[in-house]
Design brief:
The complex is a heterodimer. Chain A is of the alpha+beta class. Helices cover about 35% and strands about 20% of the residues of chain A. Chain A contains 8 helices and 12 strands. In chain A, a hairpin with a 4-residue loop joins strand 2 and strand 3. The relative contact order of chain B is 0.11. The chains are: A alpha+beta, B mainly alpha.
Amino acid sequence: MFDPRFWMPESVNALAEGTDSLFMFILWVSVISMVIVCGAMIVLAIRYRASADVSRDRPPRDHLGLEVTWTLVPTAILGVIFFWGTRDYVRMTVPEPDSMEIRVMGQKWFWTFDYPEQGIRLQATEEVDAKNASEGKPVGLVVPVDTPVRLVGSSTDVLHSVFIPSFRMKKDVVPNRYTTTGFRATEEGVYDLFCTEYCGTKHSNMITKVTVLSKAEFESFVEAAQEAASGPVDGATLFASSGCAGCHTVADVGAGGIGPALYQVFGREERLTTGETVVVDENYLRESIENPVAKVVEGYGPVMPSYAGRLSEEELTALIVYLKGLGSDKEAPI
Amino acid sequence: MSTETEAVEAPEPSYLAAHRGWKSWAFSVDHKRIAVMYLVATTLFMIAGGVMAGLVRIELFTAAGDLLDADQYNRAFTLHGSIMVFLVIIPAAPAVLGNFVLPLMLGARDVAFPKLNLASFHVYMLGASMLLMAMVLGSFDTGWTFYTPYSSTTVGPVAWALTGVFILGFSSILTGLNFIVTIHKMRPPGMTWLRLPLMLWSMYATSAVQILATPVLAITVLLLIIERSIGIGIFDPTLGGDPVLFQHFFWFYSHPAVYIMILPAFGIVSEMVAVHSQRSIFGYKGIAGSSLAIAIVGSLVWGHHMFTSGQSIYSSVLFSFLTFFIAVPTAIKVFSWVATMYKGRIQFTPPMMYVFSFLALFMIGGLTGVVLGALSIDVHLHDTYYVVAHFHYVMMGGAILTYIGGLHHWWPKMFGRMYPMRLANITSALVFISFNLTFLPMFVVGSRGMPRRYYEYIASFESLNQIATVGAICLGASLFVTLGYLIYGAFRGEIASENPWNAKSLEWQTASPPIEHNFHYQPTVSSTPYDYDGAEAEEEQKVAEASK
């Protein structure tokens, strides 16, 4: 209990250095206070139990010295804790100069990491993470060791929050504004990243990893990612990496997930929540990707985030071609 | 003199026996009957909220989702939070114990506005029905905090629930108003402000917060209803609104609401520790003053819920500073209660057991609050199970268990009968142990990184969650035993005397249960209700003699 590792995973963020020692400091203050207060309570309860024959002459109603002491001592200790916590908070929140910038985008229910300087985008959906992990590739947010990183966060739908316990770091991502925080990873390794702001059905699945690589490994990772990005656009890959697979099934499994099943979706007649019906064609698919809440299929909620401006014209077309091919005789062309 | 005249008259029936039929309850303006109706209602809601908590805990027994699906789980924790906060903890202590004892402690016949008091109850039931209607209409999954833009976009009868919360707020405001006027205008001859029972000081502070903070909740909820129903953008960014603004509005009420919940508990503990230690309270002025200090500073710390929300660094620093300030008056109270036991004559009665339990649990709740007030650590712990554990220690360990302790203290006055004391003592210990078994592991699993409101979680958090679930089942069972013997006591228990605890405050100077109009005569007061050694009475006499 008096070992910080009992309470928290090892801290690997240079900017959050003071956090653990402050936590342990308050823990000690708390334990000592508990011992004093509960100890006094137990001793007094036994000594002055009703049946005890002890002097109860003139019980004091107040005692200025005692009361001033137990006002000033906590005030002083709390003052120390306030300054300590504030100093470390400012250091964590104000990013170091020359930080590498990474843009974090939260959406239901996966993370997107954009590297503007490197020109790459990483999608951390469950499917992509599982694939990368099985192929031995870095998973989730990939960063170089000993490099200051500035995270600039935003959301496309509701509130989410980036939480990396091993970095002692957390920041909400909010639609229509940017929030920033930063870190400098000190150890290579793979760490958990959780969403900590309640965001609906798959909130607890909005988790991925942070992979800290050596600087050389990071360089080659970036090069490989740049190369992959310049290749032809593949609808099936886009479907997994854009988070579609989190809610929509594509195989012949009958029922849909959080969103409608997409097996043989093309040409299907769908009943909408408004009571209207619509035949699924290219334009309906396109509208449902760019403005999903406009025509929602009956039995489903208006929960899908908008992809307007997120996919290029070429990507959009590839995705629609892929969807058209699902369950039809013609397999989707690449 | 008074005993002689009473013996001649026929004994007046108690408030319970004075009238019959359901209308004599539902439309009674007697504060005692209204209190009993609140007692029944809040107890039923507490059971409903407890069942939801049970579902959540059983689901979390294993890391994978199994008992419920994700949406059902989200509804279960939303209902647990909404019911417990809006229907149980906020009304329970003021509306049940406050309503029952406040006029009695003042030697008054009733509160200042008895009809308004009945109206508060009816408004409460209306608001509660709206909230429960939302549950029947398919339920909602916003969390009790209704954070936007999730709450402005999710499907479900959110507007019903919000309307319920809006209406419930009026009940709270009306009760607060009634109490403040009653304490100002209806104190008996001789009861100066510094002779006011500490229960009433804390009810006074609670009422002030209810009146000042609740309207902000009403406004917030109304704005959200408008946004959902006619699409005027206030909080939803797709309509040009600001979701962080909602958090400011929401916590501007909901943080002070924490003090609406805990201040009455401070009052209850003050009464119980003095009466069951059979001595004067230590540091009367410190305890009374710190209640007011907490009410004032507590209204200025709402931003400490938002350290990671993206509010400015300067706001966060200021809110952290004020948060530490509020720990000081709280500490003063705890020290004073412990010092009250010094040279006391301590009775190991169930209410005293609840005082011991309160001191230990509230210390843990308060100290972990200091951890969360420190900016750098809060960044790590915010929205994890550490926070869940912290506020359950304060809200349940502090507020609800003390309210239950208060019921043990005033039960013989309310129903004129005593519950089985030995069973109550044993059960209070079981409640204490199972409470800690439930919530202590949550501190650890939270600081290790488990976020709150998670339906599934990673495997390494499983064993601590299993301990918590076992604890929760034991806690639920112990509380049902408590409910059982209290009901048994009210109907079949031993007849209680007027003043079984040898207390000095006025509610114990009339029959148990009290007659409909509380007192046969106008009581007068010449000391605080804690003058066990007679020092104040002596002083009074000296002053009187000197003036002759």
